[in-house]
Amino acid sequence: MIRPRTPRRLLAPALALLTALALTPSATATATAAAGAGHRTAADTDPPTPFRGEAYLGMGVAAHDGTGRPPPAPRAAQSEGVDVSSHQGAVDWPALRASGVEWAYVKATESASYRNPYFTQQYDGSYDQGMIRGAYHFATPDTSSGAAQADFFVDNGGGWSPDGRTLPGVLDIEWNPYGAACYGRTPAQLTAWISDFVTRYRARTGRDAVIYTATSWWRQCTGDHPGFGAAHPLWIARYDSAPGDLPSGWPAHTMWQYTSTGPTVGDHDRFNGPLDQVQSLADG
């Protein structure tokens, strides 16, 4: 028996209802996750909150601790460096080397779960061009202990070797791109977390980690704690014409991240000394 065909004008409302029921908030979230975590639409948040793993060295500097004034011309006693992460993808290291960059830091890890998928190309590529290079870890003190993150860092590219070409690892501790600036921690809790990280890093590598931070964040979130300057080189972040005031405990900075919009790829940095002092830091 031939059944009567349902008119199209009656099918349309039914299809619309089924579509609406299928795309409940939970179903939509599941579909989005299945499509691939880490891919954000422009309308997700304003300003956009990055997905875990997307943070990079200096992510909050322009908004918090920089005027955008250009730095002065480099002096002969300063060595030019660059820092990169997955945001730069596969880096053209020969071009960077030809531009005068002599050393590099590469993001290796974040928290105790994220590994930079471009790490090998970036880390080995800079080495192959004769650069002195090192790795950095983006800290998230609200996700796991300092010791756990130091172990993850060392196990995934953040170690040190006495080859004269490897710089000590960097603890990148700055504004939380995923929530509250100080990660929901008190100054005492944050300084204890930092101590936990650097103590484990030294135990694993025999080197004191470099600390990357910005003065305004350090004062707000650690209470301007002075206890790390004696052992740990300071990499100061400030997008301005000078590094400015330093956090307590450091009489001088070792490196200065001065811009995220340099003439070549990556954030650009200056070592507070010539290349032979970069070499000395690598040698330990």
From TrEMBL:
Signal peptide positions (record): 1-29
Q: Does the keyword Cell cycle apply?
A: no
What SUPFAM superfamilies has UniProt attached to this entry?
(Trans)glycosidases (SSF51445)
Q: What species is given as this protein's source?
A: Streptomyces pyxinae
| Catalysed reactions, as listed in the record | Hydrolysis of (1->4)-beta-linkages between N-acetylmuramic acid and N-acetyl-D-glucosamine residues in a peptidoglycan and between N-acetyl-D-glucosamine residues in chitodextrins
Give the superkingdom in one word: Bacteria
List the residue ranges of the region (Disordered): 35-86
Cite the EC number: 3.2.1.17
SMART domains linked to this entry: Glyco_25 (SM00641)
Q: Which InterPro entries match?
A: GH, Glyco_hydro_25, Glyco_hydro_25_AS, Glyco_hydro_fam25_subgr
- Which PROSITE patterns is this protein grouped with? GLYCOSYL_HYDROL_F25_1, GLYCOSYL_HYDROL_F25_2
Gene3D superfamilies recorded: Glycosidases
What are the UniProt keywords, alphabetically?
Answer: Glycosidase, Hydrolase, Signal
Q: Which is an annotated Pfam family here? A: Glyco_hydro_25
* UniProt-recorded name of the protein: Lysozyme
Q: Decide whether keyword Thylakoid is in the record.
A: no
Which family does the entry's similarity section mention? Belongs to the glycosyl hydrolase 25 family.
